[in-house]
Write a structure and sequence with these properties.
The protein is of the alpha/beta class and 541 residues long. It has 20 helices and 16 strands. A hairpin with a 2-residue loop joins strand 10 and strand 11. The N and C termini lie far apart (62 Å).
Amino acid sequence: MEFLDGQGLIKAIHYAAAYLETNKEEVNRLNVFPVPDGDTGTNMSLTIHSAAKNASSADGQSVEVVAKAISSGALMGARGNSGVILSQLLRGFYEGCKNRKTLSVSQLAGCMKSSADMAYKAVIKPTEGTILTVARAMGNFATANFGKYQEVDIFLEKMVEEGEKALDKTPDMLPVLKEAGVVDAGGKGLIYIYKGFLAALKGEVLAEKEMNSGDKTPKMISKSAEGADIRFLYCTEAMIQGGGDKAPMLRTKLLPMGDSMVVVGDEDIIKVHIHTNEPGKVLSQCLTYGELLDIKIENMKLQHENTLVHEESYKKQRPEKRSKYAFVAVAAGEGIEQIFRDIGVESIIKGGQTMNPSTQDFLDEIALINAEVIYLLPNNKNIILAANQAKEVSTEHIEVIPTKTIPQGISAVLAFCEEASVEENMEGFIEVINRVKTGQITFSVRDTTINKKMIKKGNIIGINDRKGITAISNSAEKAAIELLAGMVDEESELIYIYYGQDTSQKEAQKLHKKLEKIYEDQDVILQYGGQPLYYYILSVE
C-alpha cells in the first residue's frame, strides 16, 4: 500500500477503536496507584469510539475530511486526561492531513510529527515517560526515516515497533512506574490504537466480537427512568457543511424549539444536538446554513433506558432570564450532590473516579444554563483537561476552577463573592484550594510497591492528596486515623468526614467520636457523602 485514502482511514480508525476496546482492561491494570479507579484504558476507548463513530458520517473520499471528522469526534467524546491528550494527538494528525486526498509515506510522517507536537502544546507541563513520549518517538522516527520506505503499511509497522521501544523505556523515565513494575498506561493504549490501525492497513480481519465489543459509552440511568415524563420527544442531531462562525446565529434560531441544545462550529462544520418536538422544523432551519451531512432522529421515549442521561436532562430547560453566574460541579454520591445543591450549585454532572465526564457532557450541561459567567468545578485532576476543552469549544463565558477533589470544590463555592469581579473570585478560589488538604480511604485492587511501601490486594489504604499513599491498614477506621495524623497541624481548624455508600452510619459515627477526642482543638464534622469506591473522603482546613 503506497497511499492511504479516506475510506482506508475510516476502516483504520474503526479497527483502532476495536483493538483498544479488546485490550482496555490490560491498559486499566497498568494504572500506577492500586486503587479501584484505573480507567485510562476505558477513557481512551470511549474517546476513540467517539472519533470512529463521527468518522462514519464523513464523506470518505479524502483523508482530510475523514481526519477532520475523527478529530471532531474525539474532541467531543474526550474523557479524562488520557482521552483529552488522545484527542489532541488526533487533532494534530488532522492538521497534517489538510489539503490532502491521500497520504503517502512522507505525508504520513508529517502527520505523525504534527500529532505529537499538537499534544505537547496542549499539556502545560509535559511529563516524559508518558503517552507523549511514545507519540514523539513515533513522530521523530517517522520524520527521520520516511525516505527508506515506499509502502505505508510497512512504514507504520516500523513506527509501531519504535513506539513499543519507547514504551519499554517509560519506567526508566518515571520512577513511580519503575517501582510499580509497569509501563505507562496511556502509552500502552496508544500502541494498541496504532496496532489496530496497522491491522486495517494490512487487511487483517478482526473477529466480529472484537469489532462490536463493549459499551461505547457508560450508562447513567435516572432512578425514575421508567415512566419519566419526557417534555421533548425527539433527540435530533445533524452535521452541517457550513461556516463554523455561523454557529452562534443558528443557536439563537433553534433555542425556542427545544432544550439540551448544543450547537458548535469547527471551521467549516456545524454540529447540532437538540431535544425537540419539531425535528422537521429544526432540520429546515439547519438547511438554511448549509448542506446536511448526517442526520439522526431518535424517539427518546423508546430509547430512554439505553440513553446516557443526567438526572434532570429531559425536564430542565434553559431559563429565559439570564443570571449573573452559575456553577457546574462534577460529583458522585447522593450526599455529595446534595451538599453542592445546598450551597448553591444547581447543575451537577454525575461523575468522578471511573466515570470521567466527556467534553460533550460539559457542553450539554452548559447548553442548559443561561448565565453571564459559568464556573466549572471538575473536582478531580483527571477531569480538568476535559473541562478546559469544553471552555475552548463553548461560546459562553466559561471559567474552570481547577479543583482536584470534592472538598476543594465545596470550599471554592463557599468562598465565592457575588460582589467581586471574575478575576478576584478566581484568585480567591485558587487561594482556598491551596489551603484545603484532602485524604481518601479506599482499598487496593492489586499487589504493588509504592514509595517503598508493600501493598497487598485488599489492603485498606489512605491517600494524602499532597503526599500519596501514607496509610496501609486492615480497617478503614485505622487507615483514616493514621492518614489524618499526617494531615492535621497546629494551623488546622476544621476536619470534615464524608462517609461513602459502603460505610455504615454506625461505623462513621464511631470514627467521628474517636477523632473528636483526638482533635479537641479542631471542629470535627461528619457528613454523609454516599460516594462510591471510597469509604471516607477527609478534609482538613
